[in-house]
Amino acid sequence: MKGHIRRRGERSWELKFDLGTDPLTGRRATRYHSFKGTKREADAELVRLLAAADRGDYVDPAKTTVAEFLDRWEGWAGTQVSRKTLERYHDLAAHHIRPHLGARRVQKLRPVDFAELYGRLLRPKPEGAGLAARTVGHCHRLLHRVFFHAVKWGVVTSNPVTAEPPRVPRTEIEILGPDQVTTVLSALRGQRLYPVVLMGLATGMRRGEVVALRWSDIDLDGGKVRVERSLEETKAGLAFKEPKTKAGRRTIGIPPSVVAELRAHWRQQREERLARGLGKSDAADLAFPRPDGTAWPPDRLSSTWAKTVQTKDLPKVTFHALRHTHVSQLIAAGLDVVSVSRRIGHSNPTITLNVYAHLFGNTDEKAVAAVETALAGALLGRTQ
To answer: Does CATH number 1.10.443.10 belong to domain 178-360?
Structure first.
């Protein structure tokens, strides 16, 4: 097979090559590709296309639909992300992207097509889908990532997903005040939910991280908890997984009062296991299991918490609010954003700032005092 390159602009090229004779029509099958880059990069791209055609796995991007490309992309994503994340991607695509753009050709899409999609998804039913702005934003981020790979894999020359997603109204995060924390712990003491809630408040761990803890992950003598895995719940069932980022694997210090409560919980759990005929406790046992010793599904934990909040007339917040409460306590104590980020397992302090910036408050007065301390002596010397 042969091909050649024709310049179309300063860094724009047209790649032309033959796929041989079409056995159905008897005509030569010629393909054209647009490419942006240097001449050397264009040559390399032509070589890649010819090699793909020679192997028989060449796909004509000019005819590839969004649905076809999503099929290929989801197959790749299945090897790159967790099952929970892949499940969320699949649901977003199946319900909100494929029905509207699935039949469209990938190379024919323009930024305006995505702007129209977001408008259609936002409009109330029956004219639109009636989705929340946050959900449409999730669709936007998925599409942007999908077409990023379409560019990388040579299916399109540029990412057309440039339309702005709808703005999500900022809402105050749920936090328990000191008195509310006391109320919650007092109401739960002696119940199976108590040590789980205490751990959430004391460490800021996510629910999946808390229910995945083994006693081998808790160093009672050293007052530390190691986060080495999380329990993930998908349609396929429950599965333990490693933290998705390096920052997620971390060691968290816990205060003596919490250590004392955990020791009491450990003794109670040992007695309960023996009473149920489950045998002696082992370091590999879960620290916060269900009565039969099995893992507590994260969704079940959230629903149990919600039911308990209602029946005991506790502050009406989600289980995730325990994590927010922990962070608010750290910030109130004066910890810097990097330290807070590391403790709660964020991959980047920027994420912490985006979520909790309003809790850090206005530190301009402290900044003025710091500058005064640094410059006052020098300026006083000049005025004398």
So the answer is: yes
